[in-house]
Request: fold
Amino acid sequence: MDPAVARVLVESTVKIALFFFVVLTVIAYMTWVERRVSAWIQDRRGPNRVGPFGLLQPLADGIKFLFKESIVPPHVYRPVYLLAPALIFIPSMVTLSVVPIGPAVSLFGWNIALQVADVDNGILVILAFASMGVYGIALAGWSSQNKYSLMGGLRSSAQLISYELAMGITVVGVLMVTGSLRLNDIVTHQIEHGWNVLYQLPGFLIFLTAAFAETNRLPFDLPEAETELVAGYHTEYSGMRFSMFYMAEYANMITGSALAATLYFGGYHVPGLHALGLSEPLAAAVQVLAFCSKVAFFLFVFVWVRWTLPRFRYDQLMNLGWKALLPISLLHLLWVSFLVLTGRG
Amino acid sequence: MRAEFFLLVAALLFTIGCVGVLVRRNAIVILMCIELMLNAVNLTFAAFAHESQSMTGHVFVFFVMTVAAAEAAVGLAIIIALFRRRRTTDIDDASLLRW
Amino acid sequence: MTERDVVIRLLLGLIVVVFAFAVIRALAPARTVLAGAALAAGAVALVALNPAALANVEFWAGLVGFAAILSALMIVIHPNPMVSVLFLIVNLFCVALFYLILNAQFLAAIQIIIYAGAIMVLFLFVVMLLNLKAEEGLTARGGGPQRIGAVILGGLFAGLLFDAIRDRGPQPYFEPGSFASGFGTARELGGLLFTRYLFAFEAASLLLIAAMIGAVILAKRRLR
Reply:
């Protein structure tokens, strides 16, 4: 086989394996973070029995889910019922794979870009797979052949497609100042011209709100709230399949945080790192750590908002998406065009 | 790759869509077969653009997609309006204007 | 091997696969998953016979073509409209892969965003809202000679199209790297759209507004 092709295959396989391992571990420990932070906000202790500070709690939860009996109700439409949990995971994983974690490093004589796939139209891949995220939920709701699940699935899908619009328009604002669809170019532009959040703050706030809605997190989690519609679209799921929905929600959170960090907060940029004059691998490691801490900060914001704000009612949610966020994002786009025309962006 | 392969596959998809429109009775499946035909046409345009190294084919595909989106939206709205009256999506029922 | 041979092999392979699947399913109805696994094993064995084919773009294009034609057939054949929607989504993905092979990467992304991500969601919603069940009478019995006639005419039409395509004469073959850099990117397409095709672009935006207003009004409930 052609050595260049072999090299690409090996590099991609290693990156994908590492990527999966890291993301799944982060998802597992997000459950721990959520429980500890929510306990802190509510002035109580979180899990602290299983291992030091309760750090082995996710392991215990995982084992519990694995051993639970996985019931497939007889009335469901089996092929789609079994497929739906996987369909929810795939979009968030693909979206994360185009996000650059650090600058390109040269290890072992090769030049390795620290992202799984450096595509020329990274933003379009993100938008494409954000729109595909609707299917897992809608199909989970429909395949359960149960009117509560169907309504929950429909509500959740309607919410997702409504907030996708505002998110897309704010991303177009970022694109206008950058002039390229590659995520690496967006980070490079922010390194040269300052972080996008500094002069596109409304866009960032809209993006963050839309990310909350896209991941079905409070304050927008009506479709899956325990007090509504039984349990929404995952009513008929039990055991490992139910935990896949749970994990997919955290995966979506990680994706949303990584995108917010990359598009608005400079990605892996550490201001003032050049002045330190570190060697290249060390500088790359520091930048990777900086990216991870930005993602961690946004994940903390996700958890913080969840345990602080009350839930929106469904019609309030749709009103907010269509009558508030969409016009504001269009005005924001006008503002960004003004910036670009006057040469500021 | 030669364009002929894509033209042949697109021709097959177009034919399957045509037969679908003629054979099925559910209005929504008929709309889906129309979308299939539009996709086949898009594929043909993209194949010819690839062959003549000109981006005009891509512009055509862009506009066909736009029109397909508009037509799907309006077609589905019509079907919903029909369904509200007759509780069925069978198009053989929508025959009031026949002679 | 010309492209026509590839398509004929695709069709034959399709017929063999469908036939084998139907036979296995008829003989052991509770073991459909095993039937699928057996077919996949057969496919892997075929690939193992000629592993150099994996690096060939024609092999992958043929595979994607197989999936596209199979899913298109399932759209037309399967009685449940929800399953037809799912197969159409698979078909749209296959067409997006075709666009990637044809150096049209912007079109591939747009295909997934607009077709598979928005238009099909619309179809999905309508099918779920109208709660459609499987259609009765999809066999040749119900609807009778019209349906058989339609299928025969379809076959003849396909033959006509194949003949027209085959008559085109020798075609140029492009190496993957021989395109102008930027062919198929958003920048090039935008350059064309906003200069030469500006009028069509603006007219398309008017069309979309008209369609939006029309769809909302047509599907609205009467306010009592």
Remarks:
- The CA atoms of residues 149 and 155 of chain C lie 10 Å apart.
- The two ends of chain C are 67 Å apart (CA to CA).
- Chain C touches chain B through 90 residues (CB under 8 Å).
